[in-house]
């Protein structure tokens, strides 16, 4: 099994979520996060009519665990839908999962 974590633009979440569900991904976890990457997050924002610079950008972190054989398909799907070709599209990383245990049933997957 593989854990896929993707940090994407907030406006791409709905489309990515729908495509993953259609692909058969059985569950996802979504978090609102702040951060910066290679571009160092330098951007100008307007808050209450005042302009200011910020380094931390709003992003969405999507997490899911999938069978190893599906991990590349899921990664490619996220890249296709979340990608705009512009700086700040996000990042995906894939990690091995040794064990998954469902709390309610105690069912384990390895």
UniProtKB/TrEMBL annotation:
Entry protein name: Nitrogen regulatory protein P-II
Source species taxonomy: Bacteria, Bacillati, Bacillota, Clostridia, Eubacteriales
Q: Which Pfam families does this chain map to?
A: P-II
Q: Which PANTHER family match?
A: NITROGEN REGULATORY PROTEIN P-II, NITROGEN REGULATORY PROTEIN P-II HOMOLOG
State any GO CC term: cytosol
Name the SUPFAM superfamilies for this protein: GlnB-like
- Record's superkingdom? Bacteria
Some GO term, biological process aspect, for this entry: which one? regulation of nitrogen utilization
Signal sequence extent: none
The GO molecular function terms of this record are: ATP binding; enzyme regulator activity
Which InterPro entries does UniProt cross-reference here?
A: N-reg_PII, N-reg_PII-like_a/b, N-reg_PII/ATP_PRibTrfase_C
């Amino acid at each position: 099994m593989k854990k896929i974590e993707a940090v994407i633009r907030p406006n791409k979440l709905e489309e990515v979520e729908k495509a993953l569900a259609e692909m058969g991904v059985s569950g996802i976890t979504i978090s609102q996060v702040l951060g910066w990457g290679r571009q160092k997050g330098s951007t100008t924002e307007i808050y209450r009519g005042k302009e200011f610079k910020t380094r931390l950008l709003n992003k969405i972190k999507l997490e899911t665990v999938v069978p190893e054989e599906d991990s590349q398909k899921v990664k490619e799907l996220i890249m296709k839908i979340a990608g705009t070709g512009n700086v700040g599209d996000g990042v995906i990383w894939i990690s091995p999962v040794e064990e998954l245990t469902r709390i309610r049933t105690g069912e384990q997957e390895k």
